[in-house]
Design a protein that fits this description.
The complex is a heterodimer of chains A (805) and B (121).
Chain A lengths: L2 E3 L4 E3 L2 E3 L1 E6 L7 H13 L4 E5 L2 H4 L14 H11 L2 E5 L15 H4 L9 E2 L2 E2 L3 H19 L4 E5 L12 H12 L6 E5 L12 E6 L17 H4 L1 H8 L6 E6 L11 H8 L2 H12 L4 E5 L4 E2 L12 E2 L13 H15 L5 E4 L8 E8 L4 E8 L5 E4 L5 E4 L4 E9 L4 E5 L3 E6 L3 E7 L5 E4 L3 E4 L7 E6 L2 E8 L1 H5 L1 E4 L2 E4 L3 E2 L5 E3 L3 E7 L3 E7 L11 E3 L3 E4 L14 E2 L6 H4 L5 E9 L4 E7 L1 E6 L2 E7 L3 E2 L2 E2 L4 E4 L9 E9 L16 E8 L7 E4 L16 E9 L6 E8 L7 E6 L2 E7 L7 E4 L7 E9 L8 H8 L4 E12 L1
Parallel strand pairs in A: 4-5, 4-13, 5-6, 6-9, 9-10, 10-11, 11-12, 12-13, 24-28
Antiparallel strand pairs in A: 1-2, 2-3, 7-8, 14-15, 16-17, 17-18, 18-21, 19-20, 21-22, 22-25, 23-24, 25-26, 27-28, 29-30, 30-33, 31-32, 32-54, 33-34, 35-54, 36-48, 37-47, 38-45, 38-47, 39-44, 39-46, 40-41, 40-45, 42-43, 48-53, 49-52, 49-54, 50-51, 50-53
Helix pairs in contact in A: 1-3, 5-6, 10-11
Chain B lengths: L5 H4 L9 E3 L2 E7 L5 E3 L1 E7 L2 E4 L3 E5 L2 E4 L9 E3 L4 E7 L8 E10 L3 E10 L1
Antiparallel strand pairs in B: 1-2, 2-9, 3-8, 4-5, 4-10, 6-7, 6-9, 10-11
The chains are: A alpha+beta (805), B mainly beta (121).
Chain lengths: 805, 121
Amino acid sequence: MEVTFDKYSLMVDGKRVFIKSGAFHYFRTPGYEMALDRFAKMKAGGYNTVDIYFNWNYHSQKQGEYDFTGVKDVRKVLQAANETGLFIIARPGPFINGEVNAGGLPFWLLKMDDVIPRNRIGTEYRYSEKYMQYIEEWYDNIIPIIREFDNVILFQIENEYATDTMEEDYMRQLYKMARDKGITCPIFHNDAYFAGLWADVVDIYALDLYPYINPNQNWKQDHFCFDTLDNVEEIFRSAKENSPPFIAEMQSGWFDKWDGSGYKHIRDALGDEHINIMTKTALSQGITLFNHYMAAGGTSWDDLACDEVYTSYEFTAPIDEFGIPQSNFFKAKEINYFLDSFDFTSTDPVPFDFSQENIYTKLRHDNINNCDWLFVRNMAPETVTLELPIGKSIQLKAYDMKICPVNLPLKGCEIEFSDVEIFARLHNETEEVIFMIADKNANIYLKEHGIISGDRNDYDNLTFERGGKITRFVFLTKRLADRSWLLNDKLIFNADYVLPNGAAALERNTEIAYYDLEHKFAKKYCVVNTFKDYNKPEIIKDFDIEFCSPEIDLHYNYSDWRKIGSKTDSLSCGLYDEFVWYKGRIPNNIEEITLSARHLFAVYINGKEVLNRNSYKLEKLQEVPETISIPLDKNILNQEVNELTILVQNLGFDKGFSGDTNCPRGLVTFETKPEVPVEFYVCEKLSIERGDTRESDNPYLTKITVNFDIDFRNDVFFAKYLSLENFWYRRATIFLNGVKIGRYIKRRHVQDKFYLINEFLKPQNTLEIIIWEKDRNIKSPWGFKSDMKNVIIQIGTQKMYQLFK
Amino acid sequence: MVVVPEFLIRRVYKKGSLKKIENGASLELKNVLGPGFISGFNYVKINDAVFEAHEVKFITGGQELAGESVSEANPVAFRLGQDGTLVMTGKDCVVDGTNKIVIEVMNPEAGKVQLTVEDMV
């Protein structure tokens, strides 16, 4: 596949292609089957490209060792994209951000001598030869896999990179490395500052745009947040004259944080108006390559998340974490289908003299379809009627945006102007059917035929003929348009979604309709086999409870643990797991211990808790370190030599966008008063992860074990979840069949619903929930265990669709 | 740590805008970075003179805002392309020749943003 470009668009094998891409994280949606499912939905929604970050850290636990097997088999992910017919934008970093742990840099790299991650400290440039050598190692492993796939059309180096002095050595070296290792497609970088950064180093200049990054902000009220987007064509043209305008990350949702406002709030705040405005404004600025970040949400299972985010990386994406299309998916689909209807790859801005408060307009001449397109946006909180200088009026709802054809020649007629929006088009040499979205306040103005009202019912149609050629308009209400799917040369109506093989997914009994130019309409009635009343989650009553922290017990044998030196933090000791145990001995004359740990930790002496603390705190985007002193007395230090146990939960390293990735984690500092040396022995992971299933005497970590079955059927898609909605404990870690799939920490807007990731489900399943509780909440071990029997755990089905061929 | 590299932040300062006024100084800014908010004026430092928020006025979009009135709860919008004038009073600070200027403001998304420039008078 030969990929070239000019100032308008990308060209694949000499043919202009409009790139409609969506971001997908294979590491957060693990396995071939899940990738295939999300890609199929993206394809059904009109995307033709998938954007893929390759996460170095996910594949490399030790220097020189790379794992591309099992769920980490990226070949299968790329193969799934290939099978679905999607192009690929490859983004192997080395740094990726994506709210992943350490921004995707491997943990082992962070502690290497002479390595300065990303060749910068803060924003100061500091070149590191060693760092470049390790990147070479990563590229040597990942690029040969990427090169196996002919559908890779773009390759990104680094991500959102800038330094104070902007030395080019690093970026130029990355570019050369990619080329030397056989990358032949255009190379770009994603500029987070929309300042033309690295435009001279790469082939195509690209940037990212997120007008809504503060969920406390009301983007409808503060709509100047679109100022950059409204002028982005100018930025592109001044950055690099001869490359096509490319928004490498275009906001389609936003991530939530530990102390955030919750995904429901973000989804409600963005609605489907935001993606509509983002995408259409981008088109009005001549964009011919965009990438909705994200297209499909995912799950930060295992230790994937950076410290900022919790397990769900739902991102309010068009396809949610569970794989279910949401309302912004239907809006994206509408725009993608429109872009399939008329080739939009070569347009130029045309002066358009119109100015009104809260209204944005832009006119573009279409060099291919020989017409103009008028873009109109209303940011007023009410419907407005505009008298346009082209002699037409248009009514626009609040926060709506439309693309209106002006003087668009069709086969059987010509549209002079239309504010009834185009949904999709089927056409051959002599005939075309244009599906329009019915709108009672909009009209189509046809030359020679007058005005056609958009006030229509489903399937209402009108036919026009000229010189033996036919144009037929078929109207769909918005509700039906959402359930209508363009598949090659056919439209399928009334399905929840369709797969590339033509299968329709249905939640309930439905009459499916089909339309193609040869057979016109056809219908089929599909009876969905009775799904159990799946909307009601099942309350699990039968579960086992065990205490599972033998490490805290007095006289626990830790002689096989690793002894560490005076530096106890994660990087100094090479301890990267979420949970790290520290054990040592202290004499009984200690008056006080002072420690700092990230992020949650507890101190136990002689098997009793003396402190349990959540030290996670971010202020103004900066981590706030905390040092705590604990006074000790003879009641606590009741033996000559006392056993000290510290358990630290590390929620992840910084993602590296505004902070450094190699920030301290684990037990950062530890001192005693009077000062005595403490020899620490360390061990990673919880006991059950290490295969130690002994029940402990102490109740601080308690395991609930639930078994449940799944009835797998080839013709059914389902997504299941664990609900901790009525859960009264403070912290829990969730394992599904031995795989860590969630972190629960009680917060104001807590995540209490955890996706039971399909890839890890089996016919018979074991769910283990490890609860880490504070001493004050445990009256007595016996009473605690008894209380726990009342815990409410629910397993439910988010959605279920039957697939009909 | 600041998200935005220094050389980009410096673009916000209008070169040559520093003026000596009675018992203080004024200077001009233009937002060429992107739309956003200022959620606090920490201080402005001109040479050795430090002006706290209560000694700073920000004039933008036809409004005159006292520095201390701008906060996380009461941020001021600073649109792309928007101009603003900072007026500092309380002490003489501008010298003939090169002046060192540090402006530190808060942004809800980026946190602390510090602009350091030199300007001639």
